[in-house]
Design a protein that fits this description.
Protein name (chains A, B): Redox-sensing transcriptional repressor Rex
Helix content of chain A: 40-55%
CATH class of the largest domain in chain A: Alpha Beta
Number of helices of chain A: 9
Shape of chain A: elongated
Function (chains A, B): Modulates transcription in response to changes in cellular NADH/NAD(+) redox state.
Distance between the termini of chain A: 33 Å
CATH superfamily of the largest domain in chain A: NAD(P)-binding Rossmann-like Domain
CATH topology of the largest domain in chain A: Rossmann fold
Subcellular location (chains A, B): Cytoplasm
Low-confidence stretches of chain A: 1-5
CATH architecture of the largest domain in chain A: 3-Layer(aba) Sandwich
Strand content of chain A: 15-25%
Mean pLDDT of chain A: 90
Oligomer: homodimer
Number of domains of chain A: 2
Largest sheet of chain A: 7 strands, mixed
Family (chains A, B): Belongs to the transcriptional regulatory Rex family.
InterPro entries (chains A, B): CoA-bd, NAD(P)-bd_dom_sf, Rex_actinobacterial-type, Rex_DNA-bd_C_dom, Tscrpt_rep_Rex, WH-like_DNA-bd_sf, WH_DNA-bd_sf
C-alpha cells in the first residue's frame, strides 16, 4: 500500500486527517460501513472526490458495500505515520508553547512532548503538566541524549531561523513551525508551517465577499 | 476586479496570503517589479501556476515587464478584505487565547481584539496587553454594544459548539475556530477552522515517507 504513496499529491495527504477525524466519529457512533455518498454528506467533499482520494490506498471500498470504517480509519492512520511515537520538544515556552504543551490530544496521537526550552530565567525550571522548561543553552545536548524527532518552534519571528539552524545541526528529523516566517532548512529535514495569518486572511476574504464554499 | 471573485477557487484564495507575504518581503528589499519566473524561485510555485493564479485579478502582469510589486501587494490585500478593520473577541482566555491576544501582528493587519471572555473567576478582570478578560455571561451584550465582527473560539472541544451557538445568536459575522472539532453554524456565518492536528499529521506523514515536496 505504501508503495504508491510517492505519487499521492500533497492536496490528498492534507485531506487524510479530515477523513480520519470523521471516521473516528463514525466508529464512536457504532457505524461499521459507509458508502462514499453517505460519507460525502457528512464530510462535505463530493462522493467522486472521496472515491478518487481513497482509491489511492486501494482495497477499502467495494461497490454496493461501501467502506469498512474501522479498516479505513486504521489504514489512514498508518499512512499518516500515526502507528508510531515521536519524541518532541517545544522551543519557546511563552503562551503558545504552553498551550501546545497543555494540549493532551497530540500526546494521545503519539507525539510525546519531552521538554520545553526557553531563554527566560523566570520560566526555566517550571513545569507545564510534567514537561519541564529547560535552559535553551542545553537544547542540543538534550536532543542528542533523548532521541528527539520533532522540534516545535514557538518563538517569535526574529528568533525562529536561529532556532531552526540549531535544530538542524542537532539532526532533528522534523520541524513544526508556528513562528510567522518562512524557514530555510535543508531538504532532509521535514518542515511543516502553521501560518495562522493565512487562515485569518481566508476568513476576512469570506467576510468581505460573503462567500459560502 | 471583485466582479470575477465568485469564480475563484478556495485553493487560489488560500495561496493569496502567501503571495502577499512574499511581496511584502520584496517591497522591504526595495524590489519594484518581478517576473513570474523570479517569483517562482522565491515562492516555490511554478511560474505557470503563479501566472494562472494572478490572472484571476487581471492587469498586474505585463509580458516582458513582470508584476508591479506594490500594486499587486495592495490588490491582494484588498481582495483578502485587509483594507478594513474587524472587531474581534477571543472566547476562552487560557494559554491559546492569551497567545492570540499577545500576537500583535493580527492587530497590525486590522483585526482588533476588543475583549476576551472566560468563565474562570481567577481570570476575569485580568488584562492581556490592554485587552480585558470579561465574564462570559456578558458576551452577548458586549457583542451587540461593540459591533463585534469575528469571534475567535479558544475553548476546549466540549464547550466550542455552545460558544458558537451563542455567537451566532448574537449575529456575529465570522468565527475563527481553534477548538479541535467541526462546528455547526448557519451558512450566513463565515467559519474558518484551524485544525492544528491536520498540520501535525501532515508532518508525521512526511517523516514516515521521508518526502520532499
Amino acid at each position: 500500500m505504501q508503495k504508491g504513496n510517492a505519487k499521492i499529491s500533497m492536496a490528498v495527504i492534507r485531506r487524510l486527517p479530515k477523513y480520519r477525524r470523521y471516521l473516528a466519529e463514525l466508529l464512536d457512533r457504532g457505524v461499521h460501513r459507509i458508502s462514499s455518498r453517505e460519507l460525502s454528506k457528512i464530510i462535505g467533499f463530493t462522493a467522486s472526490q472521496i472515491r478518487q482520494d481513497l482509491n489511492n490506498f486501494g482495497g477499502f471500498g467495494q461497490q454496493g458495500y461501501g467502506y469498512n470504517v474501522a479498516a479505513l480509519y486504521e489504514a489512514i492512520g498508518k499512512i499518516l505515520g500515526l502507528d508510531r511515537k515521536y519524541n518532541t520538544i517545544i522551543v519557546g515556552a511563552g503562551n503558545l508553547g504552553q498551550a501546545i504543551a497543555n494540549y493532551t490530544n497530540f500526546e494521545k496521537s503519539g507525539f510525546i512532548p519531552k521538554a520545553m526550552f526557553d531563554i527566560n530565567p523566570k520560566l526555566i525550571g517550571l513545569k507545564i503538566r510534567d514537561i519541564e522548561i529547560i535552559d535553551a543553552d542545553k537544547m542540543e545536548e538534550y536532543i542528542k541524549e533523548n532521541n528527539v524527532d520533532i522540534g516545535i518552534i514557538c518563538t517569535n519571528k526574529e528568533q525562529a531561523q536561529a532556532v531552526a539552524d540549531r535544530l538542524v545541526k542537532s539532526n532533528i528529523k522534523g520541524i513544526w513551525n508556528f513562528a510567522p516566517t518562512d524557514l530555510d532548512v535543508p531538504e532532509k529535514v521535514m518542515l511543516e508551517n502553521v501560518h495562522l495569518s493565512e487562515s485569518l486572511y481566508t476568513l476576512s476574504f469570506l467576510l468581505k465577499h460573503n462567500r459560502i464554499d
